[in-house]
Amino acid sequence: MPIDLRSDTVTRPTPAMRQAIAHAEVGDDVIDADPTCRRLEERTAEILGKEAAVFMPSGTMTNQVGVRIHCKPGDEFLCEAGCHIYNYEQGAFAQLSGLVARTVEGAAGVLELAQLQGLIRPENDHLVRTRLVCLENTHNRGAGKVFPYEELAEICTWAHEAGLRTHLDGARLWNATAATGISEAMWSQHFDTVSVCFSKGLGAPVGSALAGPKEMIREARRHRKLFGGAMRQDGILAAAALYALENHRSRLIEDHANAQVLATAVTETEGIGLFPADVDTNIVIFRVEPRLGTAAQFVAALKEAGVLSLAIGPQQVRLVTHLDVSREECERAASVLREVAEGLASGKRAATQLEAAY
Ligand SMILES: *Cc1c(COP(=O)(O)O)cnc(C)c1O
User: Fold this and answer.
1) Ligand 1 atom 14: the closest Cα is on which residue?
2) How many domains, in total, are found in the chain?
3) Distance 352 CA to ligand 1 centre (A)
């Protein structure tokens, strides 16, 4: 079996989670209610310190319903240039809701208030209306970067004072809490709506939730239906998510410690380097120096040696730790990483010498 570090979404339900799924009490959640899904929604809202939450099949949907309920067609939201909502959801905000995004380049996904001040457009018939700020914590492209708490609070306070709404893409908010000890509710209090995923680090097979004030979540339910995300006996899925929520949050620190093993290997290996330089949580991104080849070649060599990774740019490779990889497997992956980099470097050296010989 290869060591699969492509994503924290590759986890399979644990035996205990499968038991929870098998015993889930269910009902038709479109006609009236599914009791297990209702419990998941209540528990999620409680953890996030919000009045209500609504379960959806994916984080893409919770994000898109989130931006949808805050904006009208022709409105604009501000977001960081590398964020998931802008880059990895097919521009659904434009396709489905007629919205415009204004991106601002952050440092590993982190924005400063000064970068946003002045971006709110004045009321004028020529202009779109600025309505919303979206932040991401932890930041996927930023190598699982935790948004600094004070900056985040400052941005949201400014946004609300300026009459904007705020949405958090918290697909990995659980990791931010595990890394900082700042509760999910503390982070969430600064946002009108918060999207969280159960299918990433928590290890559930399917599902996300959008949390916020009752009125907004009622509106979100309408749009979930519109987007095709209302589900029938979804307690089957909710049972897994609820199990994950209660049992898998506290272990995320193990994933973070395992990521450090990989990060150290990258730092100590010539020809590859952490980019961004800090690994806060469970995502490690590194740059492959062109003298070793491309990211795709590096990924292929890792695969050959039994480690699965993802090329996320021409020279960028991503590794993600999760529930289904142990410390020992991460240590093995770390040695493989060193060997592959060394192998590629000497292979290239040999090729260059060969060329020189002719
Ligand atoms: C994975 C992810 C999502 C949602 O992805 P789905 O595959 O649609 O569940 C949203 N935001 C971030 C930052 C993510 O990493």
Assistant:
1) 171
2) 2
3) 42
**Which two structure tokens, joined as six digits, stand for 321?**
């730790």
Residue 273 belongs to domain with CATH number = 3.90.1150.10
Q: Which of 110, 200, 206, 310 to mutate to test the pocket of ligand 1 (most atoms within 8 A of CB)?
A: 200
**How far is Cα 312 from Cα 296, in angstroms, rounded to an integer?**
9
Give dist(CA 53, CA 58) in Å, integer.
14
Q: How many CA atoms lie within 13 A of 343 on its CB side?
A: 13
pLDDT tens, position by position, 53-90: 999 999 999 999 999 999 999 999 999 999 999 999 99
**Residue 66 and residue 97 in contact, taking contact as beta carbons nearer than 8 Å:** no
pLDDT tens by residue, 9-34: 999 999 999 999 999 999 999 999 99
How far from 218 is each of 54, 223, 231, CA to CA, in Å?
9, 9, 16
* Residue-range definition of the domain harbouring residue 339: 251-357
What mean pLDDT comes out for the span 106-132? 97
Least Cα distance to 234 among 205, 214, 212, 201 occurs for 205
- What are the pocket residues of ligand 1 if the criterion is a CB atom closer than 6 Å to any ligand atom? 58-60, 63, 84, 136, 140, 169, 171, 197, 199-200, 208
